[in-house]
Write a structure and sequence with these properties.
Elements (H helix, E strand, L loop, with lengths): L10 H53 L9 H6 L5 E6 L16 E5 L4 E5 L2 E5 L13 E5 L13
Length: 157
């Protein structure tokens, strides 16, 4: 009589493999989520920055150079060029832009759900609008409106 040996994993071996896979998943999932958040944030920031840049260019075509602008540049010249779904100022500023930034008097939510607010010539983009985390350099980024001379050297040239 020939005995045939069954080649199979024991229950203990299968449980060890499952435990190892669970540990690997526990270690990698937070990294994957963080990387996905960073990529999504970068993409949205580029998109919103491009919208702001286009609005600024259009405002300069309509109103001349920035140095000739008077008053609140953001409200008077740039906002009319943006695709806004909600505008907030005064007491309801937090409806558009929940942030630790003080002195913001006007903010808007754009059609892509990002938000832009300003304090003087400093512009803040919140890539996910009023949604959390609302932290500077995490989902809120600062840009400054200033004139540049043609003699200035840019990083690319």
């Amino acid at each position: 009589m020939i005995m045939k040996k069954n080649n199979a994993f024991t229950l203990a071996e299968a449980l060890v493999v499952i435990a190892i896979l669970a540990i690997i998943a526990t270690l990698t999932i937070p990294t994957v989520r963080k990387r996905a958040f960073e990529e999504q944030t970068a993409t949205q920031l580029k998109k919103t920055y491009f919208s702001l840049e286009q609005a600024l260019d259009s405002a300069m075509v309509d109103n001349g150079p920035i140095e000739n602008w008077t008053g609140d540049k953001f409200t008077k010249y740039i906002l009319p060029q943006l695709k806004i779904i909600k505008k907030c100022d005064g007491n309801n500023i937090n409806d558009c832009f929940k942030s630790p930034i003080t002195g913001m008097t006007t903010a808007v939510v754009l059609s892509d759900k990002s938000a832009i607010g300003n304090v003087g010539d400093d512009y803040y983009i919140d890539v996910n609008g009023p949604s959390l985390p609302n932290q500077l350099d995490v989902d809120i980024f600062k840009f400054t409106l200033k004139e540049t001379s043609e003699d200035e050297v840019t990083p690319n040239g």
